[in-house]
Amino acid sequence: MQPRRRSYIPSRRLYYLLLLFIVVLLWRWTNGWHRFLCATSTRPSSISFEDPAGLSQLPPGLHNPHEPLIVKSPTIEYLDLDNTSFTNGGDRVLILTPLRDASSHLETYFQLIQELNYPHQSIDLAFLVGDSKDDTLEVLQSHLKRFQAASNPTRYRSAMVIEKDFGDNLPQTVEYRHSFEAQGPRRKGIGRSRNYLLYAALKPEHKWVYWRDVDIVENPVTVIEDLMKHDRDVIVPNDYNSWQESWRGRRLRSRLDKNIVLAEGYREYRTHRTYLNWMAHDNKKKRIRDLHKEVPLDGIGGVNILVKADVHRSGINFPCYPFENQADTEGFAAMAKRAGYGVWGLPNYIVWHIDTEEKKGNMVKGGRAAAEKKEREEEEWEKRKWWRKGRVKRGEGAGVVM
């Protein structure tokens, strides 16, 4: 009987060798596939990015040797806000003025801005006419046609007129406009019109936004440059609607309903805030006036406001709703301060607003000349008071009433 033939069984070592051979084949195949996809077998981590020859070995996905393709199409616009160029005459300024029933003030308005020293080719004008019952729009167009004529060498860079009615039918009499009951709805409406005007007119080239009331009667011709020199986020000249908050005001706001607009300057809300026009003069005895004295503010009026355009671009606008119980310009100041921007005022820098009947005593009738006369009278009274005080102290004329 023949012995059974033993079948050959590969050893474990042979299995290992076969497995290694398969791994080598797979590695070489995948390496070749990588070369087919990336056009190089060089690892990106081993390439020197400072060597141009090395950059050419990068796969197309990591390095594009071609120049960027510029698509020239009227429907595509590229804007680099980091490198916005301004005109040679100075930073571009946007002057914004909302108008309502203001036809009687436009003649003086254009006369004053025509006299501004700031280069007119760096100024853009924009107006919003809304809910007017008079001929404000027609009078405005007439003035712009004259001032923006090609033959006028001092014309502005551009002018824009916006029409927008908000359905505001509130009476425009002096008595109603400045009554306590009208303040909430009125200030919300003014804030809304300011925002419509701002977002329609602001361009990427603008560096400053200059808010200006239509009923200003006198201002320095260098008002724009003077305010710019301070390089503040928000700055205003002397304005009896600008103030610093008090502890009583903070306590009152903490107790008010959040939907109430706190109307400053009315006896219904006694805030005891410090007004900007109370801070004029550095030295009351010598009457030294530092025009560029700065003070921080918590609320501002809207007669004259110079704002860095980036403040508005960052979302700081004029709330048409109660923001910290304030609206319009006062809400704007509160919003700016909440966002970390500075709000400042110049108590000794005067821009004369029209002498309004509703705030007797805040402005002196007769303009600057009358104000200076009153100032001299106050100075004379101070001298007489100090003289009388000295006499009484020495026992002279104790019974004399000055």
Structure description:
The longest helix is centred in the C-terminal third of the chain and has 28 residues, at 367-394. The relative contact order is 0.10. This protein has helices spanning 12-38, 52-55, 106-114, 136-147, 174-177, 183-201, 223-228, 247-255, 309-313, 328-338, 367-394, and strands at residues 92-99, 123-129, 158-163, 206-212, 216-218, 234-238, 243-244, 274-275, 295-296, 304-308, 343-350, 352-353. The strands form 3 sheets. Strands 3-2-1-4-10-6-11-9 form an 8-stranded mixed sheet, sandwiched between helices. The chain is α/β, with parallel strands linked by helices and 402 residues long. The termini are far apart. The radius of gyration is 36 Å and the shape is elongated. Strand 2 (123-129), helix 4 (136-147) and strand 3 form a beta-alpha-beta unit. Mean pLDDT is 80; it is low at 356-369 and 391-402. Helix 3 (106-114) packs parallel to helix 4 (136-147). It is 33% helix and 14% strand.
Count the E strands. Answer: 12
Question: Which structural class matches the secondary elements?
Answer: alpha/beta
Which geometry do the CA atoms define? elongated
Strand order of the largest sheet: 3-2-1-4-10-6-11-9
Tally of separate helices:
11
Distance between the first and last residues' Cα: 157 Å
Radius of gyration equals: 36 Å
Strand content: 5-15%
Helix proportion range: 25-40%
Largest sheet: 8 strands, mixed
Q: Look at the structure and give the mean pLDDT.
A: 80
